[in-house]
Amino acid sequence: MSLLLGRNVFGNPANNGKLLSEEEANELFHAWVLNPRLQLHMKQVAYLMKCWAAEKENLNEENIRKWEMAGLLHDADWDQWPDQHCKKIIEELENRNVDPEVLHAIASHGHLHFGVEPETQMDKMLYAFDELSGLIHAYSLMRPNGYEGMDLKGVKKRLKEKTFSANVSRDDINDACTRANIQLDDLINFIIPRQATVV
Ligand SMILES: [Fe+2]
Ligand SMILES: [Fe+2]
Fold this sequence. Notes:
Oligomer: single chain
Number of helices: 10
Bound molecules: fe (ii) ion
Number of strands: 0
Shape: globular
């Protein structure tokens, strides 16, 4: 089964800056994503994107919302229509006149699957957070106190264990860091305390 999108241009440039309202985004999120684990993953990635946009990129309110929305909706179709991931959510957001940058970020969050390269910093950070966030969360679930006391060393150890969260591609994580021009250690240290607050 191929998830290749077969195109590289998404949305209409006339929709620059147009986003769903918070209410609309939440409504879509809850209608499409029924699995609580996937909901949590998407909320975690949304929060990481929001924090990174604000703290590291110093973006304005509107752009912070853009990053957050890409994170919140990137896997929206994965629960009910995995064979149409991420084609279906992109088409839905295109029909709703959402900013092309949000669509491109969603389309490139798995370039090996969808055939769309991450280009902007938002694309690259979504790609980077996606896999690493999942591995760190899986690690929290096997620790007696969850995120409490979790550190860089522990996460790096899990990364080295090929059997731990074996579906999380270590190559993708390294590739994402290189593309985003950030150090893996910095990214892990950024994620741990922030993700710990998303429940
Ligand atoms: Fe995905
Ligand atoms: Fe994801």
